[in-house]
Design a protein that fits this description.
This protein has 232 residues and is mainly beta. The chain has a single domain (44-230), classed as Fumarylacetoacetase-like, C-terminal domain (Fumarylacetoacetate hydrolase, domain 2, Alpha-Beta Complex). It contains four helices and 17 strands. The strands form four sheets. Strands 4, 5, 6, 8, 9, 10, 11 and 14 form an eight-stranded mixed β-sheet that branches. Strands 13-12-16-17 form a four-stranded antiparallel β-sheet, with no helix packed on it. It has a three-stranded antiparallel β-sheet with strand order 1-3-2, with no helix packed on it. A hairpin with a 2-residue loop joins strand 16 (212-219) and strand 17 (222-230).
Length: 232
């Protein structure tokens, strides 16, 4: 079946005429996320770093004069949470948004999986972070829930083995979702289905095999969506 939708391929779980990649081998298909009743393949993930004051302080990083961005490819998306990939891995829980038709149309919980030792080495040399941030399996997402607008009361919470380790909300962000979107669009085009990760609050740490991760997105304390993973 010929693709006519660009880089974003969407399949309705219910009946739909939207094109899908049924003619490709499984290993050649793009990685996907679930958004309500749809399966969507983002072409890319754009991440905003250093967006919470206390996280900047806990990593002893410099405060940015403007948003810090890096990207993850579609191949970074995984349903499995790894604890090791060439070195021990670290977690960063984040509010994530789906981009469609010029706006954020859905929200989900995401884990930005990081090779912290390698990242620190790259940062010390002034080099790009992709080797420590964009590897296979470095982006893990809950289901996304469609939204009419970005509520300023959206928040996130991450617990490991029943203990809350991270919590944050839009009010604590240096750059709010609307500002992040405008900044991204000033230098790169977003395709329908792309994901924007908006940064992590304090509390990042190492992933241990067997740990149970639970990530929640709330709006005024009401649960919007959640994800659960056991680290391998």
């Amino acid at each position: 079946m010929k693709n006519t939708t660009g880089y974003c391929f969407e399949k309705r779980i219910s009946n739909s005429s939207t094109p899908i990649l049924t003619d490709l081998k499984k290993e050649d298909r793009l990685k996907t996320i679930i958004v309500n009743d749809s399966v969507i393949a983002p072409s890319k993930i754009v991440c905003c770093g250093r967006n919470y004051v206390e996280h900047i302080e806990e990593l002893q990083s410099e405060f940015p004069e403007e948003p810090v961005f890096f990207m993850k490819p579609n191949s970074a998306i995984s349903e499995q949470l790894q604890s090791f990939h060439q070195e021990p891995l670290h977690y960063e829980g984040e509010l994530c948004f789906l981009f469609e038709e010029g706006r954020f149309s859905a929200v989900g919980f995401g884990l930005d999986i990081t090779k912290r030792t390698l990242q620190n080495k790259l940062k010390s040399k002034g080099l790009p972070w992709e080797r420590s941030k964009a590897f296979d399996g470095s982006a893990v997402f809950s289901k996304f829930t469609r939204i009419d607008r970005v509520s300023q009361n959206l928040g996130l919470e991450l617990s490991i083995n029943g203990q809350i380790v991270q919590s944050g909300n839009i009010g604590l962000m240096l750059y709010k979702p609307h500002d992040i979107l405008l900044q991204i669009q000033s230098f790169i085009s977003l395709n329908n289905g792309d994901i924007v990760m908006t940064g992590t609050p304090k509390g990042v740490g190492q992933i241990n095999s067997g740990d149970l991760f639970c990530g929640n997105v709330t709006d005024n304390s009401s649960l919007i969506t959640s994800g659960e993973w056991v680290a391998g």
